[in-house]
Amino acid sequence: MKRMAVALFATALLLPLSACGGSAEAGSGSTVTVTVGYQSKTINTVTAGTLLRSLGYFEQQLDSLHDGHTYKVDWQDYAAGAPITAQMTAGKIDIGSMGDFPLLLNAARGKQLGRPTHLVSVTGYNLRGGLNTVVTAPDSKLASLTDLKGKKVSTSIGSAADGTLVRALQRAGIDPDKGISKLNQQPAVGASALASGSVDALSQFVAWPGLLAYQGRAKALYDGAQLNLPTFHGVTAREDFARQHPAVLEAFLKAQAKATDYLNAHPVTAAEKVAQATGLPTEVVYLYNGAHGIATFDPAVKPQLVSTLKQDVSVLKAAKLTGDIDVDSFVDDQYVKKALGTSYAQRLTAAPAPTASEVWAGNSDKTLIFTSAKALLAYVAAHQDGIRAAYVPDATTGTLWFAGKAVWVADGDRLLPFVTPATAQAYVTTHAGARTVSYREALERAV
To answer: How deeply is 394 buried, as exposed, middle or buried, from its count of CB atoms within 10 A (0-12, 13-18, 19+)?
Structure first.
């Protein structure tokens, strides 16, 4: 009966998947539909999804092929990577984007079902892991990760955020299986659970932690960048589709690179486009995707990221979500190398933009950059009515955060921001005379 129930569920999952993928054979002069799965609210995938779609670059690249075919793009929006993988392995999605842990599950599932997929490019990444955050309720007395022992924590099992939680708990000496009560929930469900008090903390990926903090519904408890392990999102394509339509995949990657360049050249406008399409606050989108945001966007498949994928396999195996995965055979950067040509080598070695304190004033399409968090505070104190958003990098991890939501430390004449109370306290403990201060006091001291 159990096997029958599973079979019926799988059948029900596949029944609505009737769209024609681009892998369908097409004769000269026919219409080829290319199906792209993306996650609009997972805003580190926007250069392969939301922003790319709004700019129309992929359609433009397809129009320039002049190969006798007419191309149609079917954009399909999902809340997570798992359903994209389900549709890819059913032959219904040709190109998809998702986070690093879901990418590994995509690789494993594709191989298992005889429909192999490949990682063909990267969207957004953070080399320290700052895209994932553990948050708790605004009035919670929890002050550090060790306080989670015996508590209820919501996360999405198999996601990058779950990987961050597992590793962080292990480093804190807490068994991630027995030391906490873990609830497997979609981000929106977990956010509601946190608000109702049915869970003590929420470990999630972009943009949920920043969104909840911005809305005053949560505060940061653990900054994923404390792990100092890269996390990223990337683009995966079906192997059969790539072989049958290499020019189409190349067109997609050229369009992605163009969207990446647009985001980097026009970060405010790009954030506004993404916000309009997703309903997310523009200030939250900019926190992650801005000029000095938590995410860096580049399609190059950097060696550091491939190395991280290999380390991630053990986490998924321990959770019994997958077996061994041949990461080297999953990664296939030949198409993005061809798409980007001579610029690929330069992108491959390019470093992320340095962190900086930044103010978004009024309705301007430009932001102001400050050399220190104290200088930003002085400006905010003098222009409080005209500030749309103020961002500061954590003094130890570099993770950007809202100035008004940061934990501030006064150390002599210095004013230092931290994402979490624990990192602030760690600094205070090792610096005689330093102490935490309120945001209001920090503003007053900056003038």
So the answer is: buried
How many angstroms separate the CA atoms of 100 and 81, rounded?
Answer: 10
Spatial separation of the C-alpha atoms in residues 140 and 53, rounded to whole Å: 40
User: Please, are residues 139 and 218 in contact by the beta-carbon 8 Å criterion?
Assistant: no
Q: Which of 173, 196, 227 is the last residue of a domain?
A: 227
**Cβ–Cβ < 8 Å for 300, 122:** yes
**Listed residues 227, 249, 273: the one ending a domain:** 227
Q: Which domain holds residue 216?
A: 132-227
**Statement to judge: residues 155 and 27 lie in one domain:** no
Residue 419, SS3 per DSSP: coil
| Counted domains in the chain | 3
pLDDT, tens digit, 9 for 90 and up, residues 195-246: 999 999 999 999 999 999 999 999 999 999 999 999 999 999 999 999 999 9
Query: How far is Cα 277 from Cα 41, in angstroms, rounded to an integer?
Result: 9
Cβ–Cβ under 8 Å, residues 107 and 117? yes
The sign of the dihedral angle between the CA atoms of 209, 437, 404, 419 is negative
pTM of the entire predicted model: 0.92
In terms of domains, do 207 and 174 share one?
A: yes
386 and 345 share one domain: no
Question: How far is C-alpha 149 from the geometric centre of its chain's CA atoms?
Answer: 27
Q: Which residues pair with 361 in a beta bridge?
A: 387
In Å, what is the CA distance from 418 to each residue of 315, 356, 392, 405? 28, 13, 9, 9
Tokens of 336: 């993005």
